[in-house]
Amino acid sequence: MFREAYTPIKRGFDEHMGYYQGCGSAYTHIAACCSAGSADNDTHFTCAHTGAGKDYRGYDWFRSGPAPNAGKSVPDLSASTSNSATLISDAAIDFIHRQHANTPFFLYLPFQNIHAPYTCDARFRNLYAHATHLTEEEKTIFGYISELDDAVGSVVGALHEAERYDNSIVVSRATMERRRIRA
Fold first, then answer.
1. Rounded Cα–Cα distance for residues 36 and 143 (Å)
2. What are phi and psi of 81, to 5 degrees?
3. What is the average pLDDT across 14-35?
4. Contact at 8 Å (CB) between 61 and 79?
5. In this model, does residue 88 exceed pLDDT 90?
6. Which of 8, 27, 81, 155 has the highest CB neighbour number within 10 Å of its CB?
């Protein structure tokens, strides 16, 4: 259940942009657990209410941070129909470029990729269009992963541009998985 005390701003973060719940559309940002409407993108898709119990669907994309939203989190309706991977990477890049050269910072990027509903921009799914050994669902999943890889690559590129990469620690789930395998 939602409680303001559990939001990022109330838990020590200076800025936040993104979702509070899981199972939301990566494009419409409507929170609802269901399957995607299409493999390539869901810019206008909203899950139907199942009729079983209370309807918890609702808009789930918030922004806080620099003025005018310092210290408070408000719904960011301008994000609707924009891909969450792009929104998160663009916000991270903006954040990196606003930091002072020698000031340390913590940047947490909770991408939706690879959580359901599975859908991605067509350009990433099309990377696998001619892979006849993959099912259509696998092409979507691989496209979704490639979309994430592209977004993370953009953020790492921004660290390089800002000359912060050599003094940064980047931790990912993949990094943690490799460590666990070696141990």
1. 14
2. 75, 5
3. 81
4. yes
5. yes
6. 27
Give the number of other Cβ atoms within 10 Å of residue 36's Cβ.
Answer: 20
Paired tokens of 62: 């918030």
Average pLDDT, the chain: 84
Whole-structure pTM value:
0.84
Check residue 183 and give its pLDDT: 46
- The count of C-alpha atoms lying within 13 angstroms of the C-alpha of 166, restricted to the half-sphere facing its C-beta, is 4
pLDDT reported for residue 48: 73
**DSSP reduced 3-state for 114:** coil
Query: What's the DSSP call for residue 57?
Result: -
Q: Side by side, which strands form the sheet with 16-18? A: 16-18, 62-64, 74-75
Q: Is the pLDDT of residue 182 over 60?
A: no
CB 121 within 8 A of CB 95: no
CA 11 to chain centre: 19
What structural domains and CATH numbers belong to the chain? 4-182 (3.40.720.10)
CA dihedral 110, 114, 115, 120 (to 10 degrees): 110
pLDDT of 41 over the 50 cut: yes
Closest CA to 117 of 26, 183, 5, 56: 26
In this structure, which amino acid lies at residue 100? H
Overall average pLDDT of the 120-137 stretch:
93
Give the number of other Cβ atoms within 10 Å of residue 172's Cβ. Answer: 10
Ordered alpha helix ranges (H), the chain:
84-98, 122-125, 136-161, 173-182
- Three-state secondary structure call for residue 128: helix
